């Protein structure tokens, strides 16, 4: 906590303790600085920030006063968030984003903030601040940050894919990328193929665009080829999937399955959107549809949210030049521009030599905690359907007669956020499954609360 924040907290405490009354005058800047033993400039800045947040008001020539309870009271009071509804694709996201610091989040889809490269980002922020003023003041060029696009192109060389800069568009996130692609290529009522189970936000986006979907079972080696063949009979426009590490199963696409799906897509003219967001967590790279089919039928998207920062939003789209050009027009019409500053911060962080070391450290930690989490879940009768080769997710089957949604609601009351299978799939047996994030399963309380909640459900069944 900085000195300014500390002074602000002192004022808030005085208000909460009723030592400063509503509408009452607060000590003068000089008086309060002497009382707290800090500089006048510190108190001036603290008071100014309290005015900005609506806790104090400044009266010219008369000093600072406590705002009325209708504003100050509402800002000072912290009310617990009550979030309860039937499990849907956004259930996990809403809970995880609303969660207070003390809540445990084994169901969320990101790394703990302690695992993120904070110092590298702070360094990148300083570098960005010293960069050309265009990053701070101007709109970006339509394609987005050129050096970041060069970096993305170089990274694709490991998949034997050669790109030019006009085949890459910088977006604000992977979700923003999918939204742009859906807007441009699809209309309400069109049909797409998704995996079953799949990342819950895919289904949420499909719903928002008024699309129909066919869910193809996704197993240890990828989508069920026979089911995929049947799905193609309904003339879908797109197939949306994860490349590399699959969310939520943690499975990796095999070469044989990838080849068969690519062949079917080529024969039917199906476009594949592959979300490459977990690429940096892989030890051995799974096959990519982009390698097998090229840009004629594949659009690849990604972002840096999982490995660098969820706060500095930045993603990308890789596609044919013609399509990128059309997406640029759509982006200008609906979004006008993407954040040039965010892209510069991400680029500077990626260029730092510590990034490679950070990724290697994260992968080792994930491998360790994957093993530990599997062992601890097994003691509760919870077992992975697939043992992932890498990544953060375990897709697990719960003990017989335990419903994932009910278990999630009981755990939520104990400040533990889970990811029930119902959010990832609408299959009849989806309630028997749960996704766990091994990086968020380090705290022993996760398993203690799971055990208590399982016991409660089993007791209810017995009654």
Structural write-up:
The chain is of the alpha/beta class. It contains 18 helices and 14 strands. It has helices spanning 3-16, 29-36, 40-52, 69-76, 91-98, 118-130, 134-137, 146-155, 174-185, 200-208, 225-232, 255-268, 289-293, 321-334, 340-351, 354-378, 404-412, 444-462; strands at residues 56-59, 63-66, 168-171, 191-196, 212-219, 222-223, 238-242, 271-275, 298-303, 315-318, 383-384, 393-397, 419-420, 433-437. Helix 6 (118-130) packs across helix 15, helix 11 (225-232) runs parallel beside helix 12 (255-268) and helix 17 packs across helix 18 (444-462). The longest helix is centred in the C-terminal third of the chain and has 25 residues, at 354-378. The termini are far apart.
Q: Helix proportion of residues, in percent?
A: 40-55%
Which whole number gives the mean pLDDT? 90
Q: Based on CA inertia axes, which overall geometry fits? A: globular
Q: Quote the distance from N terminus to C terminus.
A: 51 Å
List low-pLDDT spans. Answer: 70-84
Main sheet characteristics: 8 strands, mixed
Task: Estimate what percentage of residues fall within beta strands.
Answer: 5-15%
Structural class: alpha/beta
Give me the Rg, rounded: 25 Å
Strand order of the largest sheet: 3-10-9-8-7-4-5-6
Strand segment count: 14
Properties at a glance:
single chain; 463 residues; alpha/beta; 18 helices; globular
Could you give the topology of this structure?
Elements lengths: L2 H14 L12 H8 L3 H13 L3 E4 L3 E4 L2 H8 L14 H8 L19 H13 L3 H4 L8 H10 L12 E4 L2 H12 L5 E6 L3 H9 L3 E8 L2 E2 L1 H8 L5 E5 L12 H14 L2 E5 L13 H5 L4 E6 L11 E4 L2 H14 L5 H12 L2 H25 L4 E2 L8 E5 L6 H9 L6 E2 L12 E5 L6 H19 L1
Parallel strand pairs: 4-5, 4-7, 7-8, 8-9
Antiparallel strand pairs: 1-2, 3-10, 5-6, 9-10, 11-12, 12-14, 13-14
Helix pairs in contact: 1-3, 2-3, 6-15, 9-14, 11-12, 17-18
